[in-house]
Amino acid sequence: MFRIEDQREQPRVIVQSRGEPNWSAAFAGERFVRRQQQKEVRLAIHAGQRLRFLLRANPTIRRKHDRKDPTNKEKDSRRYGLLREDEQRAWLLRKGEAGGFRPLAFEVRSAGQIDFARGRGEGAGRQTHVSVDFEGVLEVTDAAAFLAAIEAGIGPAKGFGFGLVSVAPE
Q1: What are the structural domains, with CATH classification, of the chain?
Q2: In degrees rounded to 5, what are phi and psi of residue 87?
Q3: What is the rounded distance in angstroms from the CA atom of residue 110 to the CA atom of residue 99?
Q4: Cβ atoms within 10 Å, residue 116
């Protein structure tokens, strides 16, 4: 997983991986990559622990809709971005409950909508993702579930730079 953080002079890319990253494969031919710093992190997490956190997420809800083909009676579902702050806060609370943590106090900052190219050639299109930064303090309620959430990421669109959770002591 990765997250691109805007910096004044140049962007900073934060990467999380199970193994040692292959920087030449990840950013082959990109001139903006000047140096890489890496470190191994082993988290000691326990229930009741309070941590500062930062999460860039794509908060969405999945809704069923009818397919365009009237002869097909199956229903399909799509993700829709949550645009209102109260919906985004509720989304994080749900993710926290499933992910072994409870957000205690946090800010919600919209990073706008980000467009990505989808596919190539004739079938190419655009994908738009709602980008939201959540930052604050959380309490770990289930250490194993929380570590799994950190490893897997939170929410959809991880391949587009969403879902990486950074934590630090409070």
Answers
A1: 46-169 (3.30.70.1210)
A2: -70, -40
A3: 22
A4: 13
Return the amino acid letter for 78. R
CA angle 99, 18, 159 (to 5 degrees): 70
> Is this model's pTM higher than 0.90 or not?
no
Question: 81 burial class (0-12, 13-18, 19+ CB within 10 angstroms)?
Answer: middle
The secondary structure of 33-86 as a DSSP string is --------------TT-EEEEEEEE--EEEEEEE-S-TT---EEEEEEE--SHH
**Per-residue tens of pLDDT for the chain, all 170 residues:** 888 777 666 677 787 777 777 766 666 666 666 666 777 788 899 999 999 999 999 999 988 766 566 665 555 778 889 999 999 999 999 999 999 999 999 999 987 777 776 667 776 777 788 999 999 999 999 999 999 999 999 999 998 889 999 999 99
What is the spatial distance between Cα 36 and Cα 15, in angstroms, rounded to a whole number?
10
Q: Taking the CB of residue 125, how many other CB atoms lie within 10 A of it?
A: 8
Find tokens 């250490």 and name the residue: 143
Residues in Cβ contact with 17 at an 8 Å cutoff, skipping those fewer than 6 apart: 1
What is the distance between the alpha carbons of residues 85 and 82, in angstroms, rounded to a whole number? 8
| Amino acid type, 53 | F
